[in-house]
UniProtKB/TrEMBL annotation, chain A:
The keyword Coiled coil applies. NCBIfam families: acid_CoA_mut_C, metmalonyl_epim. Its cofactor is adenosylcob(III)alamin. This is Methylmalonyl-CoA mutase, C-terminal domain.
UniProtKB/TrEMBL annotation, chain B:
Residues 34-548 form the Methylmalonyl-CoA mutase alpha/beta chain catalytic domain. PANTHER family: METHYLMALONYL-COA MUTASE, LARGE SUBUNIT, METHYLMALONYL-COA MUTASE, MITOCHONDRIAL-RELATED. It comes from the Bacteria. Pfam families: MM_CoA_mutase (PF01642). Keywords: Isomerase. GO terms for molecular function: cobalamin binding; methylmalonyl-CoA mutase activity. The keyword Transferase does not apply. This is Methylmalonyl-CoA mutase, N-terminal domain.
Length: 271, 552
């Protein structure tokens, strides 16, 4: 795995760098590469260094009370350099009631006095890895239909989409048809029998959008990470899905009543 | 003279000194006794001469001052209770000062905001977000006049935590005094003025070491003539300790810095016995109670030897290490913040038993924000309780003679001497700072401490043991967000209202003087200050000549 690069920055005029220096060293001991800016850096200087050094995360430290003004300015400065994807975290003497404000301004997380360096290091590891394996695109949108043959004419003839393939998915007791649209697909789902969950869906709600499917890189890793975060899973382990993929469903409860499928297509990594 | 005669002679000398002292400063009470009616002596010392007593301890007010620098210590007068305060505008801080004086505080201590400490005006872009945050914002004499409004400068002693621009703030203080009709010679107080520890630990430097040392010796020379009662430097271990050093490193690096200042003053032609009595020190009172007491005692012993043996100072006044203490800010926890009151009380007691001359007790909420008025009052009450209720001040150096404390004192002294020798070997403190030696030592110690806390080897109550579901303190001090804008407008107004020609003339003269290392800059800075030149303007003028220091 690629070495995580962290920029530790002291914003403003505050000269207390005991915490910043300890964190820099502790993160190095956790195998990360750490760039420490030194004292009295402006938000612009920090953003510039973050971009130049191509870091994965920026950590800010302030003990002088200037965090409310200066931390958000670092986020803005990164944004103006098209580097909004670099997450910013912070620490120091920061009253708890300032944290919601800072989070609203785009600071990912605030570590207050008393946080351990281990907790910080594992947070950064998670943060950086979730950045790289967050779902990359919508793989398809699943639409429950009573009969594919009856639904196809609208999508095929009126909208002019083309059917890529039709196949049976035994694990779900369904037949599916994929229609390509841009870089994603529509998936028409038809139950094969009364045991299929699609059948139950049609009984309850009638035809309509059934789920969204997100493409991920490492499905098993994602599932265990979500489980750790207390997200309810419908499939504890991946199952075989359509189109030579591994899939797993997340419970709608965590996603504003939207059923979400994660899927990983075999042999297409790096696509 | 045999040991026995020497001991008796010293004892006699001390007793005579006591008689003289109590004429001027009578004892606080007619009778000192315990709750059981047991009389409390001024001092407890060996009944018979011991071999090492005079060499390592001595009587109070006698070389090597291990037991204290005055013959009667707190039996005559308590330490000065001096709470560091300052936030927001000069007007708000003035109100807090007047409140603290009414509450029985006996000296003022000014905290300045970071732009003031680093020589930027409030309307400088570098000051963005920092104005009035960690202390009061001072841009020009105008703010200083407000800060001391209705506070008679001949009656209070004022300590100012100001380093790189110390000469400017001191000149403003002189100017305010003049407006109140107080001659400079009657002003008392202290400026921190210790730039070396800024490079090592605190970070509010402006100029490179060489011109910074010149500014410091200019102050020494000027004050010797004009402000003979003012402490011209407070050589500070406090921030070195806060940055993570050990107790031994704290005093070793501080005393090594002290040596560097004395060297610089001597090199600029000053006489040791003229300036040495105006040197003051500033230490941290940390958690390990007995080690802290021993540290203060060891520091006095080492400094007296440095002044006497190394610099050959003749006057006993030059041998005495006088110090201010502040309890350790970095020992406070954000968790269960009221526990901090207890930590502060123990730390403060160690400073009192260590013989401090003045004391700041931290407020319980300092790991969360600047102290509220209520927290600041509890902190002051803590020292008042130690002074008036505990009896800790009723006899001199109560822990002197304890096998443990004497042994710790010796051991700390001997380890500190090794560091001082090491720094001498590097060419002195200035060179050691430039080589990053002290910085590295401190970082290593800080890291080790952190790892011990995280592994639970070092216990911090509320943090890694006896942890509770968190309850926040209800009220935290908030600095008004509008203050920055108001302060910006105010400094711009000052620039409009002053005599612009006179201001320019003063800055030009200052620039020319700065170019000649043989000229004392203080009179030029005083003129500029009186012409309402701002801190930023004066520092920028000096930046042009001196350049800036860029840290690591």
């Amino acid at each position: 795995m690629k070495q995580i690069r962290v920029l530790i920055g002291k914003v403003g005029l505050d000269g207390h760098d005991r915490g910043a220096l300890i964190i820099a060293r502790a993160l190095r001991d956790h195998g990360m590469e750490v760039i420490y800016t030194g004292l009295r850096q402006s938000p612009e200087q920090i953003a510039q260094a973050a971009v130049q050094e191509d870091v994965d995360v920026v950590g800010l430290s302030s003990l002088s009370g200037s965090h409310r003004s200066l931390f958000p300015k670092v986020v803005e400065a990164l944004r103006s350099r098209n580097a909004a994807d670099i997450p910013v975290i912070g620490g120091g003497v920061i009253p708890v009631e300032d944290i919601p404000y800072l989070e609203k301004k785009g600071i990912k997380k605030i570590f207050t006095s008393g946080a351990t360096t281990d907790a910080l290091a594992s947070y950064i590891k998670r943060l950086v890895s979730s950045e790289s394996i967050s779902p990359k695109k919508i793989a398809h949108i699943g639409i429950a239909v009573r009969a594919i043959n009856e639904s196809l004419p609208f999508y095929q003839d009126v909208l002019g989409l083309t059917v890529e393939k039709v196949e049976k998915v035994d694990s779900e007791q369904i037949k599916v048809a994929f229609l390509k649209i841009g870089e994603t697909r529509l998936e028409l789902l038809e139950p094969l029998n009364e045991k299929s969950s699609i059948h139950r869906f049609l009984d309850k709600k009638g035809e309509g959008v059934h789920h969204l499917a997100f493409e991920v890189d490492d499905l098993e890793e994602r599932l265990s990470e979500y489980r750790r975060q207390g997200i309810r899973l419908l499939n504890e382990t991946p199952v075989a899905g359509a189109d030579n993929s591994q899939i797993a469903f997340l419970h709608p409860a965590n996603a504003s009543r939207v059923l979400i499928e994660l899927c990983q297509h075999q042999g297409k990594e790096g696509e | 003279m045999g040991k026995e005669q020497e001991f008796s002679a010293n004892k006699q000398e001390w007793e005579n000194a006591v008689k003289k002292t109590v004429q001027r400063y009578p004892e606080r009470q007619k009778v000192f006794e315990t709750s059981s009616g047991i009389p409390i002596d001024l001092l407890y010392a060996p009944k018979h001469p011991q071999e090492e007593y005079q060499e390592t301890q001595g009587f109070p007010g006698q070389y090597p001052y291990t037991r204290g620098i005055q013959p009667t210590m707190y039996r005559s007068k308590y330490w000065t209770m001096r709470q560091y305060a300052g936030f927001g505008s000069a007007r708000e801080t003035n109100q807090r000062f007047r409140y603290l004086l009414e509450q029985g505080q006996t000296g003022l201590s000014v905290a300045f905001d970071l732009p003031t400490q680093i020589g930027y005006d409030s309307d400088d872009s570098m000051a963005d977000g920092e104005v009035g945050k960690v202390g009061v914002a001072i841009d020009s004499l105008h703010d200083m006049e407000t800060l001391f409004d209705s506070i008679p400068l001949e009656k209070v002693s004022t300590s100012m935590t100001i380093n790189a621009p110390a000469s400017i703030l001191l000149c403003m203080y002189i100017a305010v005094g003049e407006k109140q009709g107080v001659e400079p010679a009657r002003l008392t107080g202290t400026i921190q003025n210790d730039i070396l520890k800024e490079y090592i630990a605190r970070g509010t430097y402006i100029f490179p070491p060489k011109p910074s040392m010149r500014l410091i010796t200019d102050i020494f020379a000027y004050c010797q003539e004009e402000l003979p009662r003012f402490n011209t430097i407070s050589i500070s271990g406090y921030h070195i300790r806060e940055a993570g050093s050990t107790a031994v490193q704290e005093i070793a690096f501080t005393l090594a810095n002290g040596i560097a200042y004395v060297d610089a003053a001597l090199a600029s032609g000053l006489d040791i016995d003229q300036f040495a009595p105006r040197l003051a020190f500033f230490f941290n009172a940390h958690n390990q109670f007995f080690e802290e007491v021993a540290k203060f005692r060891a520091a006095r012993r080492i400094w007296s030897k440095i002044m006497k043996d190394r610099f050959h100072a003749k006057e006993p006044k030059s041998w005495k290490l006088r110090f201010h203490t502040q309890t350790g800010g970095s020992t406070l926890t954000a968790q269960q913040a009221n526990n901090n009151i207890v930590r502060v009380a123990l730390q403060a007691l160690s400073a009192v038993l260590g013989g401090t001359q003045s004391l700041h007790t931290n407020s319980r909420d300092e790991a969360l924000s600047l102290p509220t008025e209520e927290s600041a009052r509890i902190a002051l009450r803590t020292q008042q309780i130690i002074a008036n209720e505990s009896g800790a001040a009723d006899t001199i150096d109560p822990l002197g003679g304890s096998y443990y404390v004497e042994s710790l004192t010796d051991e700390i002294a001997s380890r500190a001497w090794k560091y001082i020798e090491k720094i001498d070997g590097l060419g002195g403190a200035v060179q050691a700072v430039e080589a990053g030696y002290m910085q590295r030592e401190i970082r290593q110690a800080a890291y080790e401490t952190q790892m011990k806390i995280e592994s639970g080897e070092e216990i911090v109550i509320g943090l890694n043991k006896f942890v509770e579901e968190e309850q926040q303190l209800p009220d935290l001090l908030k600095v008004d967000e509008e203050l920055e804008a108001n302060q910006r407008k105010a400094v711009q107004q000052v620039r409009i209202e002053r005599d612009a020609t006179e201001a320019d003339r003063c800055l030009n003269k200052l620039e020319a003087a700065a170019a000649d290392p043989g000229i004392n800059l203080m009179p030029y800075i005083l003129q500029a200050v009186k012409a309402y030149c701002t801190i930023g303007e004066i520092c920028n003028t000096l930046r042009k000549e001196f350049g800036e220091y860029n840290g690591i």
